[in-house]
Design brief:
By secondary structure, this protein is mostly helical. It is built from eleven helices and three strands; from the N terminus they run H-H-H-H-H-H-H-H-E-E-H-H-H-E.
């Protein structure tokens, strides 16, 4: 391979160094805040989201490096892969949060298949399993695409195979996440019937800024529906990003999407950053009592709470 071949840029445009730097800083701030809240609230299951944000930071840091040397394969491949894969982990974090909302809000006797179309206890395992499959398939496709030079032997075929594999991974993710989005949106409305039963277990104190819950030693925020809003908005944002990536891979290198950098920042970077911001403002550990890696086997439900139980534990101030 000649030196001239090695000097061919991996981009169809002149990548912006300034925008890559700004994105790296913004995601870095989101990572620091999320890490602080994770430790403060002991929300250890949120480490999945921390890893996803870290991948975004690394991705845009290497994009900055790649923008300074657009003919270098390694920085380009790293930034391409981690930016593609980070939202898949974010989707997994959303699955976990939604499962914890259901666990917290819905009484045990109401957690039926009719409520969510699938057994509520299997919501997180099923969708996380699809997320893992989509992650590995997209990883294979992303590595294949990012590791192929235009001057490689049979480059066109390699790129086509890589893009087809990545599209398959995106298809799996969109199918699973699309179904999950419908389920989450439906639950947003059906969950209203559980508000009264949940409020029955809560007793306001200190001017309504804090609550007590009968029979539990866990902290609960009565404004949990704010977190449900964050989940639903995040679902829409990740779907927008996924549709963009499908269009990008479907068009290929000759398409308008890959020839203009602003498409990526508007339809990938911005939606993903808004997802990060939504959970920074509405941090799950500030609303849900069970954000460790394990949840109790026998949570308190309304059937166990009768009369004026004297065992009450002060809960989190809002």
């Amino acid at each position: 391979m000649s030196s001239q071949d090695n000097n061919i840029s991996f981009y169809a445009y002149d990548p912006s160094k300034a925008v890559a730097l700004v994105c790296c800083i913004l995601f870095g701030v989101g990572l620091i805040w999320s890490l602080f809240m994770t430790i403060r609230k002991r929300s250890w299951v949120w480490t999945v989201q921390l890893l996803a944000i870290l991948m975004e930071v690394v991705g845009y840091a290497f994009r900055l490096v790649s923008a300074n040397n657009p003919t270098s394969l390694n920085p380009y491949a790293i930034q391409f892969c981690v930016i593609i894969l980070a939202p898949v982990l974010m989707a997994g974090a959303i699955y976990v949060v939604f499962g914890r909302i259901v666990f917290h809000v819905v009484p045990a006797q109401e957690r039926t298949t009719r409520l969510l179309w699938i057994p509520p206890r299997w919501v997180t395992p099923i969708f996380v399993a699809f997320d893992i499959i989509a992650l590995f398939v997209q990883l294979i496709g992303a590595v294949s695409v990012s590791g192929t030079r235009a001057t490689d032997k049979d480059a066109a075929n390699k790129l086509k195979i890589g893009k087809d594999v990545a599209l398959a991974g995106l298809g799996i993710q969109m199918a699973a996440f699309g179904l999950f989005t419908i389920i989450a949106a439906r639950f947003h409305f059906t969950s209203q019937r559980f508000v009264q039963s949940l409020n029955w277990r809560l007793e306001e104190t200190d001017g309504g800024r804090a609550v007590f819950v009968k029979g539990s030693s866990q902290k609960i925020n009565p404004n949990w529906r704010r977190l449900l809003y964050a989940v639903n908005v995040s679902c829409i944002l990740i779907l927008i990003r996924s549709v963009f990536r499908v269009v990008e891979f479907a068009q290929g290198s000759d398409g308008s999407v890959m020839k203009q950098e602003f498409y990526m920042y508007v339809f990938d970077t911005l939606p993903v950053f808004l997802v990060v911001c939504s959970f920074c403002f509405f941090f799950p550990g500030s609303y849900l009592p069970f954000m460790g890696f394990r949840v109790p086997k026998n949570p308190v439900d309304s059937r166990q709470l009768r009369g004026d139980e004297s065992s009450m534990t002060a809960l989190q101030e809002i």
